[in-house]
């Protein structure tokens, strides 16, 4: 099975290839010669994931998948959630998003949070959704330099290290993305 991965985020490509790259051929947008900024206009992860995979499927007619991920913080009523990529504005400086989270959580004792990933697969013109959740908490100060996005402030339940203090293989033992991908693999293998 060959699948186009509808994402502009190279970190996602690397994490997902590490889990399923030996089993399935994954083609990036770049490798497929597609250069577009996929919109994420909706207010749920599901709808945004669907938009991304539908966009690429309409363009190519090929089997493909996408994923949308959000960090949901209980003390912030689930924010940044679906707005995770642009929480502190549209800039490319991701540090601003981290700073905004830490600032809003200052003095709060409830640090509970979770990452949620929704994968949208379009296979033979039908869509399927798969979800993965990783529970954890937000640190007072960021730690570590691996990974991407909010990894330096997120510690998954069962670990003492932040995602950014882990190798990719370690992160993939806990991660939301890995859990969603495991469901995708199970589905593809069961066909
Ligand atoms: P797409 O092209 O796939 O849409 P994106 O980077 O815009 O890539 P999202 O819309 O899913 O991805 O944005 C979610 C944001 O949350 C994104 O800015 C990431 O930096 C962050 N994020 C996603 N997965 C993460 C992870 O595993 N660890 C830390 N931060 C993550």
Q: Could you please describe the fold and organization of this structure?
A:
Helix 1 (10-20) packs across helix 5. This protein has a single domain (2-190), classed as Alpha-Beta Complex (Maf protein), CATH 3.90.950.10. 31% of the residues lie in helices and 25% in strands. Strands 1, 2, 3, 4, 5, 6 and 7 form a seven-stranded mixed β-sheet that branches. The chain has helices spanning 10-20, 45-60, 95-104, 168-174, 176-190, and strands at residues 2-5, 25-28, 64-73, 80-81, 112-123, 126-138, 154-156. With 191 residues, the chain is α/β, with parallel strands linked by helices. The protein is built from five helices and seven strands, in the order E-H-E-H-E-E-H-E-E-E-H-H. Bound molecules: inosine 5'-triphosphate. Inosine 5'-triphosphate (ITT) binds at residues 7-9, 12, 38, 40, 68-69, 84-85, 115, 147-151, 163, 175, 177.
Q: Can you summarize this structure?
A:
Helices cover 31% and strands 25% of the residues.
Question: What does the secondary structure layout of this molecule look like, with pairings?
Answer:
Layout: E1 2-5, H1 10-20, E2 25-28, H2 45-60, E3 64-73, E4 80-81, H3 95-104, E5 112-123, E6 126-138, E7 154-156, H4 168-174, H5 176-190
Parallel strand pairs: 1-2, 1-3
Antiparallel strand pairs: 3-4, 3-5, 5-6, 6-7
Helix pairs in contact: 1-5
The site of inosine 5'-triphosphate has 19 residues, from strand 3.
Features of the shown structure:
191 residues; alpha/beta; Maf protein; 7-stranded mixed beta sheet; 5 helices; 31% helix; globular; binds inosine 5'-triphosphate
């Amino acid at each position: 099975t060959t699948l186009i991965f509808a994402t502009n985020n190279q970190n996602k490509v690397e994490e997902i290839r590490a889990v399923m790259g030996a089993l399935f051929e994954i083609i990036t947008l770049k490798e497929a010669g597609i250069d577009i900024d996929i919109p994420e206009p909706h207010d749920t992860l599901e709808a945004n994931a669907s938009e991304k995979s539908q966009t690429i499927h309409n363009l190519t007619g090929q089997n493909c998948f996408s994923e949308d991920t959000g960090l949901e913080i209980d003390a912030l009523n689930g924010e940044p959630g679906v707005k995770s990529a642009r929480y502190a504005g549209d800039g490319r400086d991701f540090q601003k998003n981290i700073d905004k989270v830490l600032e809003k959580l200052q003095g709060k004792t409830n640090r509970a949070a979770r990452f949620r990933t929704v994968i949208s697969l379009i296979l033979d013109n039908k869509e399927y959704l798969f979800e993965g959740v990783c529970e954890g908490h937000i640190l007072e100060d960021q730690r570590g330099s691996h990974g991407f996005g909010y990894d330096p402030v997120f510690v998954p339940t069962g670990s003492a290290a932040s995602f950014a203090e882990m190798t990719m293989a370690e992160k993939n033992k806990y991660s939301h993305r890995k859990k969603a991908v495991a469901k995708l693999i199970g589905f593809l293998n069961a066909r």
